[in-house]
């Protein structure tokens, strides 16, 4: 059983959605929390809630900002201690038809959903290697395992799975474990936050109600938080959230890959 109490966790996107669900689960176990998010009001609310359970520090951070990441990491470790749990969770759901793709849309999608994870890894991994301990959880998506028809999102999320798989193999020799979270539908408010960040990649109005209903049928963010921590305790490489059966699509994709051999 992992010892949680007194550990230090750094969570990007930690004031909203799945990040907040993970933070709540950690707080209940006595983990000290460094919450990073773009949403200053949500950070204030999260801190007000979670300080009743544990020590919390908040940092307004755009995960595309490498210098800001380093500053937040330094401050978190000064105030809370060495970070041994890193959750690279911040992300958006950019949407575009293939006919409307632009370089600007690609840059936004990859900078937040892929480079944001890379920046978190590169900020904290050398510190963890130096201490020969740590656990990194990178948030991908079910769309990082089986593609849908939205390449802006799928490209980055597949890359996060590949990054995490390779990092798990290479970091283990340094005492650092790596898992990848691949959520199915979860009602996190991410559609609205994506539109607020850049309306050009927001989900089209005509599709929004159906997608929102699909997401509401998944588990709560608090349930996901508990599932993530249970997976860490079990040493799992992949964390897939409950509530949606991806097995048929995974089996079809695996069969197509194996048919090439």
From TrEMBL:
<dbReference type="GO" id="GO:0016491">
    <property type="term" value="F:oxidoreductase activity"/>
</dbReference>
<comment type="similarity">
    <text>Belongs to the short-chain dehydrogenases/reductases (SDR) family.</text>
</comment>
<dbReference type="InterPro" id="IPR036291">
    <property type="entry name" value="NAD(P)-bd_dom_sf"/>
</dbReference>
<feature type="domain" description="Ketoreductase">
    <location>
        <begin position="7"/>
        <end position="187"/>
    </location>
</feature>
<dbReference type="Pfam" id="PF00106">
    <property type="entry name" value="adh_short"/>
</dbReference>
<dbReference type="InterPro" id="IPR020904">
    <property type="entry name" value="Sc_DH/Rdtase_CS"/>
</dbReference>
<protein>
    <submittedName>
        <fullName>NADP-dependent 3-hydroxy acid dehydrogenase YdfG</fullName>
    </submittedName>
</protein>
<keyword id="KW-0560">Oxidoreductase</keyword>
<dbReference type="InterPro" id="IPR057326">
    <property type="entry name" value="KR_dom"/>
</dbReference>
<dbReference type="InterPro" id="IPR002347">
    <property type="entry name" value="SDR_fam"/>
</dbReference>
């Amino acid at each position: 059983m992992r010892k949680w109490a007194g550990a230090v966790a750094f969570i990007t996107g930690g004031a909203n959605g799945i990040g907040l669900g993970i933070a709540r689960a950690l707080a209940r176990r006595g983990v000290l929390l460094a919450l990073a998010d773009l949403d200053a009001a949500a950070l204030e609310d999260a801190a007000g809630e979670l300080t009743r359970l544990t020590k919390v520090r908040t940092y307004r951070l755009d995960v595309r900002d490498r210098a800001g990441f380093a500053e937040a990491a330094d401050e978190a470790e000064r105030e809370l201690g060495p970070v041994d749990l890193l959750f690279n969770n911040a992300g958006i759901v950019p949407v575009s038809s293939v006919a409307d793709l632009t370089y600007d849309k690609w840059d936004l999608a990859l900078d937040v959903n892929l480079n944001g994870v890379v920046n978190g890894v590169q900020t904290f991994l050398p510190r963890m290697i130096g201490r020969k301990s740590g656990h990194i959880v990178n948030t991908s998506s079910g769309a990082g395992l089986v593609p849908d028809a939205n390449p802006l999102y799928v490209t980055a999320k597949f890359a996060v799975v590949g990054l995490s798989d390779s990092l798990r193999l290479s970091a283990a020799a340094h005492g650092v474990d790596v898992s990848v979270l691949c959520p199915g539908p979860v009602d996190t408010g991410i559609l609205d936050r994506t539109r607020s960040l850049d309306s050009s990649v927001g989900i089209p109005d005509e599709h929004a109600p159906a997608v929102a209903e699909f997401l509401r049928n998944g588990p709560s963010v608090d349930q996901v938080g508990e599932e993530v921590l249970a997976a860490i305790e079990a040493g799992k490489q992949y964390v897939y959230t409950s509530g949606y059966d991806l097995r048929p699509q995974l089996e079809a994709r695996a069969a197509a890959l194996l048919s090439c051999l």
